[in-house]
Structures are given as C-alpha cells and as structure tokens.
Amino acid sequence: MLHTTMTYSTCLTYLMEEWMFLEYLPYVIICSVVLVFINILLFFTIPVCVLLLSYLSSLVIFIYERTHKLKEAYSSKAWDGARLIITFMWDRLGRYLNGYELHGIENLPDGPGLIIFYHGAIPIDYGYFLSKLFLLKRRSCYTVADRFVFKLPGLKNLSAVMWLLPGTQQECVNVLKNGHLLGISPGGVREALFSDKSYKLIWKNRKGFAQVAIDAKVPIIPMHTQNVREGFRIFGRTRFTKWCFESLRVPFLPPYGGFPVKFRTYIGKPIPYDPNITAPELATKSKAALQALIQRHQQIPGNIYDALMERFHTKKKKP
C-alpha cells in the first residue's frame, strides 16, 4: 500500500514539474513584483520631484543671497531677481507637465483682494498661478499656508521670499490693508486629503477669511484649477486615517500621481465688499461662488483619462 502511495506521489510531482507554467512560476512572480514596484515608484516619483524642486528653489535663494550679499528682508523687491528665477522654473514645470493656462486674470483688482481657491492633493496649481502672476504682472500675492509647512527643514527662506505666512487674522488684514493680494484655501489640508474627484468643498464652519475681507474692506475672488484632483490624488484615505488627522492634525497621507493632465486656472468675478453683510453670510456666498466656478469649468466626477485627452484639445470649456 505504501509502495502504491509513493508511486502516485512521484508521478504527480513529475507531471507538475513538466507543467510549463509551474516550471517558470518563480520567474513570473519575480517579474510581477518588479512591475508592481516600478508602478509604485512611478506613482510617487513626481510628488518627490516636486518636493526636490522646492529644495532647489531654496538653494537658488541661498546662492542669490550670497552672490548679491543681500541684507534686506525677504519681502523686499531686492529679492525680485531670485523670484524671477524661481517662478520661471515653476512656470516651465507647469507648461511641460500640465500645459498650464491662466484665465480671468483681468478679474483681479488692481488693488488688494482676497483670493479663495479649492485645495488639491498637492497645491502645485497654486504655485503655477503665483509664478504666472509674477512673470506677467510682477505682482506679489501673499499666501496663508498651514503651519506644518513652516516646520519643514530647509524651506524657511523660500516661504519668506514667496510671501507665505502662517495667517493670523490680524496678519491677513494688515497684508490686505497694505495693498496686496492674499490667497487662502478655506478647506486647507483637510480638503487636500479628504476631498475627491467630486470636488466637494470641505470647509466645515470656516468663516475667518470672510471676517478678514470685511475688516480689510476688500473683495473676495474665487479661483479654481480644472483637473487639479486628476493630477495628484491621495493614497490611503479611510475613516480611520480621517480620524487620525482630526486627532493629530498631521497630514501623513502620501500623494501620488503627477499625471500630465491639462491644468487651467480660472479666476472668477469678484464678490465686492459690502459693509452690510456678516461674516457667516459672506462665507456662504463665497462658498457658493467657488462651487459655481467649479461646476462651470470642471468635469464632475473628474476622470484622469479625459483630463489627459484635454492636453490635445485646443478648445476649452465655455465659461
């Protein structure tokens, strides 16, 4: 009986070894693992390159400071040469990676104004906007950034030269009263991490920006970049990770993508200053204006393939 069992086992083993698929199975597994690793690497390569470009920009500022022996504050016009180099680099990236276009720049007031925008997974589109604005108009636009940005090592000088600030309410009012533009994303990091291809605004009860506009007596200008959520997306978005973010306030979810989709930034009509409106009312009105701008120019739900195909279309969506 044992002899018969051994014979059957031997025959089965022989037949399995002769089966071509099993013979090459180790190679198939190795190739599959390599392909998966390459895909993962490609998905995260562009976000890492964006970070490296930020550090390259910071290095440019360091070299510029040493070669020109500047002692002036980073916000002064003495740094415009460095800004020109940095904005040119980012503008080239926007042109070649996303075919970047800016529409509605005529809607920006000549004086101060508060720009509100939808926050993508990576606000690279906003960087393109700042670059294009400086190259075309030589205008400064201050930006309220999340506090974790100022904790990133080696980027302090870049933040100062490009007019990033933590954004206390009084700071924002002072910037506007001094005649500058100011950009704020009321959704902030929460919107970056947990919004999706539906382009839903996640503002909760944010109305501080509206109070800033009222106190500074300036208009609010909505702004949206078409396909920004198709360019970069967030990996690992779950209820648990959302709970972790709300508890720790740390943006630990990694972005992926860098797909060369078409980016078009649209600047909407300003909401004029009204002394008779309250901050909650103005916040609601601003949210409706931005959502309408998104609905007008954005395919919802967003689609990466369609956004890629727009790179080959010369005709843009009608306003």
UniProtKB/TrEMBL annotation:
Endpoints of the signal sequence: none
Domain Phospholipid/glycerol acyltransferase span(s) in chain numbering: 101-223
GO molecular function: acyltransferase activity
An example Gene Ontology CC term for this record: membrane
Annotated TM spans: 21-38, 44-64
The keyword Disulfide bond is assigned to this record: no
Assigned keywords, A-Z: Membrane, Transmembrane, Transmembrane helix
Pfam family, one: Acyltransferase
Keyword Membrane recorded: yes
InterPro entries per record: Plipid/glycerol_acylTrfase
Name of the protein in its database record: Transmembrane protein 68-like
